[in-house]
Amino acid sequence: MPKDEAQAEKRIEELRTQIKDHDRRYYEEAAPTITDREYDRLYRELGDLEAKFPDLVTSDSPTQRVGGKPLQAFSQIRHQVPMLSLDNTYSEDEVANFYKRIAKLLPDEKIPVVIEPKVDGVAVSVMYENGKLKYAATRGDGSVGDDITQNIKTIKSVPHQLSGTAPKIFEVRGEAYLDKKGFEKLNKEREAAGLPLFANPRNAAAGSLKHLDPNVAAKRLLGMIFYGTGAVEGAEGDLHSKIFQLFKKLGLPTHQDWWLADSVDKILNAIRDLDEIRRDFPYETDGAVIKVDALEQRERLGFTAKSPRWAIAYKYAAERVKTKLLDIKVQVGRTGILTPVAVLEPVLVSGSTVSRATLHNEDEIKRKDIRIGDTVVIEKAGEVIPAVVEVVKSKRPRNAKPFDFLKHIHGKCPVCGGEVRRDPEFVAWRCENLLCPAQTTRRVEFFAARGALDIEGIGGIVADKLVERGLASEPLDLFELKIDPLAKLNLGTEEAPRVFGEKNATKAIQALERAKTAPLSRWLYALAIPDVGKTTANDLARFHETIEEVANSKLLRDVIVYHESKGDKQKTTEIGDRLIKSGFAEPSKSKADKQRGIVTQVGPVVAQSVIDFFESSVGRKTIQRMKQLGIKPASEKISAKKAAELPFAGKTFVLTGTLPTMSRDEASAKIQSLGGHVSGSVSKKTDYVLAGTEAGSKLEKAKELGLKVIDESEFKKML
Ligand code: IVH
Predict the structure, then answer these.
(1) CA–CA dist 360, 340 (Å, integer)
(2) Residues 6+ apart with CB under 8 A from 136
(3) What pLDDT was estimated at residue 593?
(4) What is the pLDDT of residue 550?
(5) pTM surpassing 0.70?
(6) Does residue 216 have a pLDDT over 70?
(7) FRET label pair with 357: which of 127, 135, 189, 376, CA 20 to 30 Å apart?
(8) Where is average pLDDT lowest: 198-212, 276-290, 529-543, 620-634?
(9) 85 alpha carbon to ligand 1 midpoint, in Å?
(10) Domains, the chain, with CATH or none
(11) Cβ contacts of 432 within 8 Å, gap of 6 or more
């Protein structure tokens, strides 16, 4: 645990970056690289730190939102009842604590709970009106999900019409899954076609549900298990345990095996019983869900900000085995980050052979003191990519040397031989050569991805092949593509060819044409400038008209000079004033910032990164080439005067709870577009607390401090 706030801030930043990366891999790319357990560990560390240093909580912290982001390509559906997730635990003690906690909240009452399998699939919500399937949606961020009606309709076990007497409104929630056999078959086919394999059935299921083409979803035989309801009219229930019977009557697939218990011992027994039989289920399960049975008791227990108090998910420990670490390979990612990967003596875990495991970064290797030649314990939950948990020190060969990252790669990028630098902000080494082929491929992919320039059809495999065939060696080459060679691009192998096709090629070219005038913030993000994430890209775009203006930014240079000139009062005052006047900085409110005096939109490290990029030959070429190609990103600049005149200028908002019609992202975006700030924690500096239902401790704190609390309708009036 970091000792002081500065250390905590650094670690929090690291954790947020890592978690956001993993979120993206999980939700958007359906290709996670760590186990759920490791993810939960990172998440919990972040949560603990934020609890200890509440001033460091920000609204964009992963702890402040409920689920993944909805994908833009689908139309969106707002859930009438939010789709929450559950608190996870891996320990029986915590399950016992959960039961004791609710027993305390409901003293002298019998509290039966239901224990049921936790299906490792994708959460979906399906709406039936008068028995007819109306629509289906993913969880998305909990309030708004993707409309996946067409894909859900391809699942055979999901009825289009309920049998028997159906309630007027019946929204059912459950888990779509790909069964174990289907998963194996799918990956075999993909292997034969030279396509990348899915890491686990959940990703394969997510991939097909989120496939824009329902025909693809139909080909992968998905199953469904329903375990709960959302909005309901005309079927008043009192016990959750009755739902299984009702679902069966209506023709909805649900759990076969579930248990009732009313004591800690009985709950733990049920969890163990389930563990005995779950391996024989056709689908993957990763835990047990424990839910209070009586709906009336649930109501009294209520919710915390993110999850119900009346349920908890217990996750079974991932399977662990020992094997030998033969070597450590270093891979190069999009921004040049070097990632170490363990090469293992192949070993069978959870039914599949494992020969690789992620090692994350240099510090992780040091912390666990992992050495080549070591016997290591690897862990694999379900079908997820395995991780090295620890070293069996007693089996260490005598000549095993501590792993020296830099020496291992001979001080050079293992792909291009370029220079490497350890990034002071992160825990990673980075290849400095922007023309490194490993980076090129990932940059082309990133450039075209959702959230960046969103070029339909150009994903990982296409990017790989474009670079491999010499059709692109940097992102901007995409704009020179012609339909014909693109249509003929073979994405498969020579034996099993699979061409990109005329239709896809046409769509991609059209998307590229549209991208030429995409907003500046998207361009800044898509160029994969080191340290520039979405937020920074937005901030830069609001203060610069064109990309050339960013490249030659006086503001960014001022930020750097300002921070370099600390101690020179006259100079810092002069620059500080200038930055404040431009709207790019604000006078600091924090005591810790006293000597600094101002807070800038982007910090000096990021500012330097942006300047370095545009001063590098790649950066200069990029600007020149964009001009030649007639690319003119749309301006999002607001004038300094306007910034100061915006109605929420200088005002800080804190959001808490669930708003009736707006998502948190929407509300935050509105506030920011009107010049306001959104903060994650309540303090004396907060101007408004926008509170929805199930607002928790933040609301209490706001009341304690006597702050102005508003609800959505008041907020809308302000807008
Ligand atoms: S109940 C209000 N029951 O696990 C919470 N969830 O983190 C409603 N899941 O979001 C969820 N099997 O996607 C519930 N039998 C089950 C489940 C289950 C899998 C998933 C679901 C949920 C997540 C919990």
Answers:
(1) 6
(2) 124, 125, 126, 127, 147, 148, 149, 151, 152, 153, 158
(3) 46
(4) 96
(5) no
(6) no
(7) 189
(8) 198-212
(9) 6
(10) 5-65 (1.10.287.610), 76-315 (3.30.470.30), 320-408 (2.40.50.140), 441-515 (1.10.150.20), 646-719 (3.40.50.10190)
(11) 336, 413, 418, 419, 420, 421
Of all helices (H) and strands (E), which one includes residue 321?
Answer: strand 319-332
3-class SS of residue 154 = coil
Residue 227 CA, ligand 1 centroid: distance in Å: 8
Indicate the burial class of 398 (C-beta count within 10 angstroms; 0-12, 13-18, 19 or more): exposed
What 3-state class would DSSP assign to 336? coil
CA of 263 to the centre of ligand 1 (A): 22
What's the 3-state SS for 542-567?
Answer: HHCCCHHHHHCCHHHHHHHHHHHCCC
Residue 10 has pLDDT above 80, yes or no: yes
The C-alpha atoms of residue 210 and residue 121 are separated, in whole angstroms, by: 13
175 CB near ligand 1 (under 6 Å):
yes
Answer whether 258 contacts ligand 1 (Cβ < 6 A). no
Burial 556-589 (b: 16+ CB within 10 A, else e): bebbbbbbebeeeeeebeebbeebbebbbbeebe
- What is the structure's pLDDT at 71? 39
The number of helices, as runs of H, and strands, as runs of E, in the chain is 27, 24
Closest residue by Cα to atom 2, ligand 1, is: 84
Please work out, in degrees rounded to the nearest 5, the angle formed at the alpha carbon of residue 479 by the alpha carbons of 475 and 484.
115
113, 227, 240, 658, best to mutate for ligand 1 pocket (most atoms within 8 Å of CB): 227
- pLDDT for 67 equals 40
Active site amino acids: 118
At 17, which helix (H) or strand (E)?
helix 5-23
**How many CB atoms within 10 Å of residue 350?**
18
**CA dihedral sign of residues 161, 167, 168, 172:** negative
Task: Say yes or no to pLDDT of 168 above 90.
Answer: yes
Residue 620 in tokens:
């200069």
Ligand 1 centroid – CA 139 distance (Å): 11
Helix H or strand E segment including 15: helix 5-23
Distance 86 CA to ligand 1 centre (A): 7
Rg (CA), the chain: 27
State the closest ligand 1 atom to the C-alpha of 122, by its place in the atom list counted from 1.
13
Question: b/e for 106-117, b at 16 or more Cβ within 10 A?
Answer: beeeebbbbbbb
> CA neighbours within 13 Å on the CB side: how many for 336?
23
Q: Is the CB of 119 under 6 A from ligand 1?
A: yes
289 lines ligand 1 (CB under 6 A): yes
Query: Would you place residue 72 in the very low, low, confident or very high pLDDT band (cuts 50, 70, 90)?
Result: very low
455: left (phi over 0), alpha (psi -120 to 50) or beta: beta
Secondary element (H or E) of residue 271: helix 264-277
Which of helix, strand or coil describes residue 652?
A: strand
Cα–Cα distance between 126 and 158 in angstroms, integer?
9
Q: Kindly state if the Cβ of 227 falls inside 6 Å of ligand 1.
A: yes
Average pLDDT over residues 175-189: 83
